[in-house]
Amino acid sequence: MSNIGTSQRPNLRERKKARAKADIQKAALKLFAKQGYDATTVEQIAEAAEVSPSTFFRYFSTKKAVVIHDNLDLLIIEAFRGQPAGLNVVQALRRALRSVFAEIPEEELERELKRGEIILKEPELQAALIDEFTRNINMFSELIGERLNRQADNMAVRTLAGAIIGAMLSVILQSNVLGSGDNYFNGFDKALEQLEKGLPL
After folding, report:
1. d(Cα 33, Cα 159) in Å, to the nearest integer?
2. Is the dihedral of CA 169, 170, 172, 173 positive or negative?
3. pLDDT in tens, 44-100
4. Which of 4, 26, 75, 161 has its CA 20 to 30 A from that of 142?
């Protein structure tokens, strides 16, 4: 997931931007699968996505960023905000993820799995994950704080956000053995179930 504004509902401009970024990433992932990450240039990605290199850089600062970007953020944020108030944070997130993944075509889920595999194979991308995890914790802290009417920088809020990201990270790190997009989601759900139960062993 990447950092986007969570203080208000995504507007039309944000939706258009998300679609454009998704199209560019889709073209990039196809090229990476065909000829490798290192051998693929920004110019080739722009050509495959039918945009100019300057348009590519309007959405992504680097080739690395096009892989790290998570297209599901906007959908998950909306689904999470729409969950009943009676659910705790983890319950709400699990239901939100179920609703999002239920609507995503299998092809797109498989693409997310391939994206994870590329990240785990490339040292340059692995290093970039540290910044991504920081953004994810900030994003979830805002969402949790909003849901619970607490400050995003509250220690308890940030601890829960960090635990959620850690649970998801445990799945991402084994994404190359999960086998399918459906299993990828099931892995997230099981990890969050463990967290919801208090991490029993």
Report:
1. 37
2. positive
3. 999 999 999 999 999 999 999 999 988 788 889 999 999 999 999 999 999 999 999
4. 26
**92 three-class SS:** helix
Residue showing tokens 């990890």: 191
CATH code of the domain occupying 12-196: 1.10.357.10
Question: By the 8 A CB rule, do 109 and 101 touch?
Answer: yes
Contact indicator for 113, 181 with CB cutoff of 8 Å: yes
User: 83's torsion region: left (phi>0), alpha (psi -120 to 50) or beta?
Assistant: beta
Give me the DSSP letters along 94-126.
HHHHHHHHHHS-HHHHHHHHHHHHHHHH-HHHH
The CA-to-CA distance between both ends of the chain, in Å, stands at 28
Burial-class residue 138 by CB neighbours within 10 Å (0-12, 13-18, 19+): middle
Contact in structure between 164 and 99 (CB atoms under 8 Å):
no
* pTM of the full structure: 0.78
Query: What is the distance between the alpha carbons of residues 41 and 63, in angstroms, rounded to a whole number?
Result: 8
Contact 160/89 with Cβ under 8 angstroms?
Answer: yes
Query: Cα 136–141–144 angle (5° rounding)?
Result: 125
Per-residue pLDDT band for 181 (boundaries 50, 70, 90) equals low
Domain ranges of the chain: 12-196
